[in-house]
Design a protein that fits this description.
The structure holds two protein chains of two kinds.
Chain A (H helix, E strand, L loop, with lengths): L5 E11 L11 E11 L13 H19 L9 E8 L5 H5 L2 H11 L9 E5 L6 E7 L10 E5 L9 E9 L24
Parallel strand pairs in A: 3-4
Antiparallel strand pairs in A: 1-2, 2-7, 3-5, 3-7, 5-6
Chain B lengths: L4 E14 L2 E17 L11 H22 L8 E8 L5 H8 L4 H8 L8 E5 L6 E7 L10 E5 L9 E9 L24
Parallel strand pairs in B: 3-4
Antiparallel strand pairs in B: 1-2, 2-7, 3-5, 3-7, 5-6
Helix pairs in contact in B: 1-2, 1-3
The chains are: A alpha+beta, B alpha+beta.
């Protein structure tokens, strides 16, 4: 399998103080790590692509580490996560699916065995395409206060033969969460759901 | 603080390769953006002093954030720029009041010098509008390798009564500069131009 060729890395950190309601005692932080890599399968149909997942693992770990640093350096403050990919137009959606394993693995590894499935989304698009990366609680998918998302994108990526890979982490619930449902304090943490 | 900040977002971009050429060290740009309430939204106000004071506060805050995101001391920054997007209930002059009278001095204080004009752009727009922040060398506006720009956007800002204000700082010029002109090692740094 080809080695991962990196063109660009982007880190975005959002700090939300309020959204029209009371100013939060601790602002919500969302961070995204994006990597623009060459798509080794661009422009042709390749049957065997799965080996590239293994090649992406070191990059995934590096991105997850960069996110934890961007959020202050301790994995303990991370409460939500998500991932996504934007495949340039010479690639196919399936190439974006290569990110599921290495992206998820990287964050679980760093967050000490987070239990919930990492929510994800992907699409094919051109430079500047925006992606709404879904976010849920790292240990229990049904925690309603942590259903969230972060819009990401890069003006000059993905080019046709590139893929934008994204990992996202958050430090808490939506800033004015108040629609009930399972609370983070009520997590059993056995099945990754509740 | 005069500024009523809803949100702060920081962006870091690193370019590791361009057109197949390795960029070493990677060129890096950072931008810090604040979403603030527009005290004059929806009405004509002759005296815009409150906005100039907000600009002064943001000059310090956003420059410190951008430099911290790059992990460099302020004086190591090479180029800079600023921009603002006013929500639909404001006027372009509100952006001007934030950007032009008082924002520059604290920027230069954080960066140590800054003999050159801080290049700027402004617009009115809705949530998710893009800002192309112009970039120029901080001590000599004619350094051609550092003529650049950085696009940022915040998907939920500016709302109608808000202003999105951004400051961008780099530790480098374009990835593969080769169109001649004044180079950074030729800077005299006296008049802000050369």
């Amino acid at each position: 399998m080809p080695e991962v060729q990196l063109r660009k890395r982007v880190i975005v950190v959002e700090e939300v103080f309020h959204e029209g309601g009371p100013v939060a005692a601790t602002p919500l932080r969302r961070a995204a790590a994006l990597a623009v890599i060459h798509n080794p399968f661009a422009g042709r149909y390749a049957e065997e692509i799965a080996g590239f997942m293994e090649d992406l693992k070191p990059l995934g770990l590096e991105m997850a580490r960069a996110l934890v640093v961007a959020l202050g350096g301790s994995a303990k403050i991370v409460e939500g996560y998500g991932k996504g990919a934007i495949v340039g137009q010479a690639g196919e959606l399936e190439h974006g699916a290569l990110w599921h394993v290495p992206g998820g693995y990287a964050m679980r590894e760093l967050l000490g065995g987070a239990k919930a499935i990492v929510p994800s989304t992907k699409k094919v698009g051109g430079p500047g395409t925006r992606l709404d990366v879904p976010i849920t609680h790292i240990n229990a998918s049904y925690v309603r206060s942590h259903f969230d998302s972060m819009e990401v994108g890069i003006a000059d990526a993905p080019r046709a033969d590139e893929i934008v890979l994204a990992l996202v982490m958050t430090t808490g619930p939506r800033v004015h969460a108040r629609v009930g449902g399972l609370k983070a304090a009520e997590i059993k943490g056995e099945d990754g759901l509740r | 603080m005069k500024s009523k900040i809803r949100k702060i977002v920081t962006f870091v971009e690193e370019t590791h390769s361009e057109m197949g050429q390795h960029v070493h060290p990677p060129t890096r740009r950072a931008a810090a953006a604040a979403v603030v309430e527009n005290p004059f939204a929806g009405k004509y106000e002759a005296d815009l002093t409150e906005l100039t004071e907000i600009g002064e506060e943001l000059g310090t805050l956003l420059t410190e954030r951008a430099v911290a995101a790059l992990g460099i001391p302020g004086p190591s920054a090479e180029s800079y720029g600023k921009a603002a997007a006013v929500g639909e209930n404001g006027e372009l002059e509100h952006a001007a009041a934030i950007l032009h009278p008082k924002l520059g001095t604290p920027v230069r204080k954080v960066l140590g010098k800054g003999a050159a004009l801080i290049p700027s752009s402004k617009k009115r727009g809705g949530p998710g509008v893009s800002l192309d922040i112009p970039l120029g060398h901080k001590d000599a506006a004619f350094v051609r390798s550092h003529f650049d720009g950085m696009e940022i956007r915040v998907n939920d800002a500016p709302r109608a009564n808000e202003i999105l204000v951004a400051i961008a700082v780099t530790d480098s010029g374009r990835p593969l500069p080769r169109v001649g002109g004044l180079t950074k090692d030729q800077i005299k740094g006296e008049d802000g131009l050369r």
